[in-house]
Amino acid sequence: MVDAAINHTAVEVNAPEGRPSDYFGKKVFGRAAMRKYLNKATYEALVDTMENGTRLTREVADSIAAGMRQWALEHGADHYTHWFQPLTGGTAEKHDAFADPDGCGSVLEEFSGKLLVQQEPDASSFPNGGIRNTFEARGYSAWDPTSPAFIVDTTLCIPTVFIAYTGEALDYKVPLLRSITAVNKAATEVCRYFDKNVQRVVSYLGWEQEYFLVDESLWAVRPDLMLTGRTLMGHESAKNQQLEDHYFGAIPTRVMAFMKDLEYECLKLGIPVKTRHNEVAPNQFELAPVYEEANLANDHNQLLMTVMDKIARRHRFRVLLHEKPFKGINGSGKHNNWSLGTDTGVNLFGPGKTASENLQFIAFLVNAISAVYKFNGLLKASIMSATNAHRLGANEAPPAIISTFLGTQVSAVLDKLAASKGDDAIRFDAKNVFKMSGISHIPTLLLDNTDRNRTSPFAFTGNRFEFRAVGSSDNCAEAMIVLNTAMAYELTEFRKKVDAKIEAGMKKEKAIYEVLKQMIKACKAVRFDGNGYSDEWKSEAKKRGLD
User: What is the DSSP track for 360-378?
Assistant: First the structure.
């Protein structure tokens, strides 16, 4: 349907203003803008809030609002809005003008700390999971200082949480922030077994956004596509996905013009887009950024989906984010690459160079696997929807059975660790090399040492886990909330067990090893390195007790 029109003449767009480094973050009230428009004391107070969660005073909030207003007005903004993420899966906003009557027949551009910090949008018409009645309409949006404000068109957008009058969360950002706080606390305490200098652990997310582009004129003659986002009738085209020759092929001229325009707008909004390419299905494409802190990365993905739709219309396309818009060819997902890192610069899912670093790596790896095993059904619920159910499985996407892939060598290390016996099963030699019975060393063993399993919904890929089952239209926060919270729970339980053994007189390294050994055995059922598409795996997963 799209091939006949995909290479029409591209729409002319404004050329980028020099190199990406010249305009990256131009529309963001980031740290460079903060330093320019805020006095030193206000800037330092805001950074302290962003990094340490320190509460802002009313005076500081007023000072921030004054600087933010000046910056916004100088960049062409005439309205402001609290930008939030209700349970619809999209974003919401109510615009107010800066201009306010001064009582003398004129207007002044007003924006106070009170308006920055809190607003009151109507909460009665948003989904709430049944926790509120329709007549309970009052709700509040409150500024999230950890995600910088930005300008879209002529509106200053302030990222906020959205809560009910009685305090319940009505959005995805509140539970996401809570989960980030929980995993930070739990992971930091475990890290101090290995490095007393660790003060903070950050949850990172790198998403990969897949999408289809359809010519607008052809989209307009398909009521099913217009109303549901997918085709409900018709037949396959003569040339379809048979040879999969679209994958990584040359990007059509008209699509390239769209991509360049999209990347330009994204970079001005501070979204660090990095990769673009053709996907497997005809007229399916992918965009991916550099990973960021999970809260900011999630905000950027929500913003991207809005911007993508606007830019597509400018180029006379319609962008399809439905997980399965066309029968017979691949659907679209949004792989969530998840990792944890310390404020000392250590990737907790990355193998290290010393014995202690590798014991820490194994501890976090095993805790992640155990969390996936214990909260298997909850993870599946976090990515499940009517649209995503059309995509999962079917030799194009991970199955709905949640399992982990580690690769043969990493699996062998864990199996050897679980089966080892005696006090010498884990030890440190004179060169501080971590050793186990039958394995000479670990430091150079575990990075990029195995194939990547494209049939696994939750795959370890060398220094992170890739949650591949997330749908293309999903809010990433759903999956991140469950992952971070499950990991926080598991790390808390792990620390309790290790501390109990230490208090009983066992050495720290030995205590860590003994608890890990028990966990590896308990969660082995969720580990699967084979073909997740096969019927044999469905039978095997049922035997293992997986959902």
Answer: HHHHHHHHHHHHHHHTHHH
How many degrees, rounded to 5, is the angle at CA 461 between CA 456 and CA 464?
A: 110
Q: Report the C-alpha gap between 84 and 227 in whole angstroms.
A: 25
Tell me if 246 sits within 8 A of 282, measured CB to CB: yes
pLDDT value of position 179: 98
Tell me the pLDDT of the chain averaged across its residues: 88
Dihedral angle of Cα 161, 166, 170, 174, to the nearest 10 degrees = 40
Contacts of 279 (CB under 8 A, 6+ apart): 210, 246, 247, 285, 286, 330, 332
Tell me the HSE value of 523 on the side-chain side, using a 13 A CA sphere. 26
| Among the listed residues 323, 319, 330, the one whose alpha carbon sits nearest the alpha carbon of residue 216 | 319
CB-based contacts of 142, cutoff 8 Å, min separation 6: 117, 118, 160, 161, 163
Closest CA to 257 of 216, 301, 209, 316: 316
- For position 451, what pLDDT does the model report? 57
C-alpha count within 13 angstroms, C-beta hemisphere, residue 141 = 23
Q: CB atoms < 10 A from the CB of 387, how many?
A: 21
Give yes or no for residue 427 having a pLDDT over 50: no
Work out the angle at residue 302's Cα, subtended by the Cα atoms of residues 301 and 307, and round it to the nearest 5 degrees.
Answer: 90
Contacts of residue 15, defined as CB under 8 A and 6 or more positions apart, other chains included, come to none
Question: For residue 521, what are the contacts with CB-CB under 8 A and spacing of at least 6?
Answer: 418
Instruction: Write b or e for each residue in 493-525: b if 16 or more Cβ atoms lie within 10 A of its Cβ, otherwise e.
Output: bbbebbeebeeeeeeebbbbbbbbbebbeebbe
**Structure-token match 């079917």, residue found:** 394
Percent above pLDDT 90 for the chain = 67
pLDDT, mean of residues 102-118: 84
Q: Calculate the alpha carbon distances from 231 to 20, 228, 385 in Å.
A: 38, 8, 18
Phi and psi at 47, nearest 5°, equal -60, -40
**445: amino acid identity, one letter:** L
- Please classify residue 64 by burial: count the beta carbons closer than 10 Å to its beta carbon, then call 0-12 exposed, 13-18 middle and 19+ buried: buried
Strands 155-164 and 79-83, by their bridges, are parallel
309-314 contacts, C-beta under 8 A, 24 or more apart: 311/258, 311/261, 311/262, 311/265, 312/213, 312/258, 313/216, 314/11, 314/13, 314/261
**7: pLDDT strictly greater than 60:** no
Distance CA 237, CA 281 (A): 12
How deeply is 238 buried, as exposed, middle or buried, from its count of CB atoms within 10 A (0-12, 13-18, 19+)? Answer: exposed
